[in-house]
Amino acid sequence: MRFYIGIAITCAAAVCLAQVPKKGPKQPNEQWVSMFNGKDLAGWVKVGNEKWEVVDGVIHGQGVTKDYGYLRTENKYKDFHMSIRFKCVGDGNSGVFFHVDFKEGTANVSQGLQFEIDPTLAHHTGGIYGDGRQWIVWPSPENEFVVRNDDWNDYLLKVEGNHYVARLNGVTMVDFTDPTPKSSDGYIALQLHSGGRGNMQFKEIYLRDLTAR
Known about the structure:
Layout: H1 2-19, E1 33-34, E2 44-47, E3 51-55, E4 58-62, E5 69-73, E6 80-88, E7 94-102, E8 109-117, E9 128-130, E10 135-137, E11 152-160, E12 163-168, E13 171-177, E14 187-192, E15 199-209
Antiparallel strand pairs: 1-15, 2-5, 3-4, 4-15, 5-14, 6-11, 6-15, 7-8, 7-14, 8-9, 9-10, 11-12, 12-13
């Protein structure tokens, strides 16, 4: 009997300890979370004057001026994994920015890098560009054909500190550790390049937030 009483006391103590709030920084939610509800742009913020709308469960971004346009997240992220599907309807340039921010009241980027999206051959979809440094890294020549124009593409993006990985349609485009990073925290943003030719679609956007604050 004493043996069973001892077990009961041990289990009760373990339950009590499990209910005590852990001290220290908030831990990241490592589960995949949907970033797009398929109905509206809740959770996203328009930057600039380009057209962003939801049509038939798809985010549609279209250039209506000659300026840059962005659709950014409401929250900032340091480290994350993102899964997103995109379709290049036109031949305009786009990208998924990370660690990005903007000059107040404008669509001018003040910091941040982007995972490139461009259906034109040798325009380095899957490469990384930005932070005033132009190209950081781009895919091998044989991978310039991986992107599909006017069809859905699967993009898996990983940002962990200064280590960046882009997989496009199951192919690793870049796996790169940046020796001289300039930015480490900021919004995630979908881009429409200047020139008015942007015509992009995005859907099935999921995020694993690995940020510890």
